[in-house]
Predict the structure.
Amino acid sequence: MRLPTVVILTLSLLLACSRDPQARKLQFLNSGNSYFQQGKYREATIQYLNAIKIDQRYAEAHYRLAQVYRQQGFGTGAYQELITVSKLQPDNLKAQIDLGNLLLSAKEFKQAQARAEGVLARDLSNVDAHILLANAHAGIKNFEESLREMQTAIQLAPDLPNSYLNMAYLQLNADQAAAAENSFLKALSLEPKAITTRVALGNFYRQQKRWAEAEHQFRQAVQIDPRQPAIYGALAALLNDQGQRAGAEQVLAQAKQAMPNQSAGYCLLGDFYFFLGDLGHALQEYEALFQQHPRDERVEKNYIKLLVLSNRLEEAATLNDKLLKDHERDVDGLILRGQILHAQRRLDQAAISLETAIKWDPENPMAHYSLGLTLISMGSTSRGISELQQATRWQPGMAEAYKALAAVALRTGDMELLRDCADSLIAAQPRSPEGYLLRATASSHSGRISSAEKDLSRAILMAPKDSRPLAAMGQLRSTQKRFTAAAKLFEQALTRNPRDLQALAGLAQIQLTLNNPARAAGRVKQQISKVPDDSGMYQLLGQIYTSMKDYAAAEQAIGKVMELSPNSVDAILMMASVQRARGLVDLAAEFCQRAIEKEPQDARPYVLLGSLRESQGKWQDAQQQYQKALALQPDHATAANNLSYLLIEHGGDLDLALSLAQSARRAMPELANTADTLGWAHFNKGHYGLSVDLIEDAVKASPANPTYRYHLGMAYRKNSEPAEARQQFEHALRLNPQPSQAEQVRKALAETIGNLSSRRSSAEPIP
């Protein structure tokens, strides 16, 4: 059969095109553009990369690829592609401006400014360049120049609504609220149906607490476009701000009806409950959504997250395993698996799952955040901090990561890290008291009391129903010994929140400082009568009774904690400490073992059990317990310190002992114990000068400790200071050390006196 001539010619042309590189790369580009317009970014990326494979210098494909990356939030990829475009096409001013806006979003304000000025050097009337320059000036707090540049942009194109919208934001940054309102209204007059502008104006009114005007703008926006989820979310948040939760729920239910097939719409109500911390209603809502939309991955993944948070781990794991079976490289699924395994305390497996997620998506902030938490739980604190910082690098506004970093900073006493976290949290959530509370803590620890007071005062005004700022201010007043003012603040905090344990502990501490432990216990019991189901208050009561050496009452209080919170490892360890104080070491050890059974990945029970075994003279067992603790938490300072001492005393590896002692000292520089252990390690390594300096610090901090006196005497003796050595040995004996240690001290004293006599004899003149 012969083909018609027209068909033959067409086939010939197609074959020619398929062999022509220019035609092929254009075909890939056009295909990529089509996918991009449909929102199919993965397919668009493949087509653009195919075009670039044919021609590495194909600037248009590089530029389009940058747009795809930006749309997906892949800032690094977009930046690299735009850099390539700027080299291939130095006169592509649009690419230069896009590059500047990327730098702006990364807070590289100076570099963004340079890009804008480079464009203006070629085209002084480029409106986008003036806007970029205005925003860059705002980033470096140069508000006057910022507003001037924005005014120039408006003069060049006075009919662009977005320019007035941008001007409004800049005026807000410059604290020009009235001018900002005029700019918002001007933008709206140019484009009355602009949803973005109406929502922005509504949010402005919300910040000004002009509730009716804000609500009017949001409701107008709903009428203009009833299928925009963000509008319903803004309106619900406004109503909730005014204490109208029922009204907010009604609005979000309306959104479900308006968008029955739009995931972002029908998920709003469940997300609202989650935002409020109402996990019960959030889980109930998502359970219903999962039944209604079983193929909606967003619903499925959020439902799994809520199951994890509700400790329904088996159900969460079953659903997530099914998700990963169908999509084994699903990054969200891998992250969820890591979070489930973390909650199950299978930390090694959790880390593997999260590292796999990062392998497939290196810029995923949630993967880095979750891995950071897991590593910290495993005791790899420095690696954990690094992962949390990576999370904030890819998502600068990630409040959860800053809070996690702040928790590490508080635990380790790193006030510089705490201040950085607080500043970042304030930038991310300027209307939340969290960042101000953390920054106040950092300032207080650094002796900057006025700065702490300023931040706490701001937090109190910002959150009038929150008890925490009042409790924190009370704590600050306590450190100033202004106990009357502190007590008043603590009582106010408890009026706002009867469960505020920090406030109650502050009141108790005031009475303990004033040597009134019975009053401290009485005040705690008074609060327990108001909230009898709060285990934390019983735990505080147990601590007070322990300090009073009323161990029977302490045991009763801690028993109540264990009744209310059966899985509380803290309560079990407290009970162990009480039994130890009563001299019941074996019973204390049994509680430690129970804690280990409850939480085998917690280093604390092993450390306490190690110290119990030490007190029984079972140093080999003690050494094993400390080693187990350090395997779980390599930076556990107490375990490192105690293991170091055992290694020194029982002929262990002195290099390892020195390293462990140095680690403990870095973590707990204020403790006499760590100074003595490190000094004793240096002594046994032959570093006598270092030994003297460190053990002197230990003796100054704890002058009634006979062991420290003995060690200092030995260090003086080896450092050729026999008179000082004799003085320390004699002082140690006056402190009534244990019989075995007393024998060591007497022997060392006798040898020192003998050496002194020998020196005096040799110094006498020969007759």
Notes: DSSP finds 45 helices and no strands in the chain. The chain has a mean pLDDT of 91. The two ends are 139 Å apart (CA to CA). Residues 739-763 form the longest helix (25 residues).
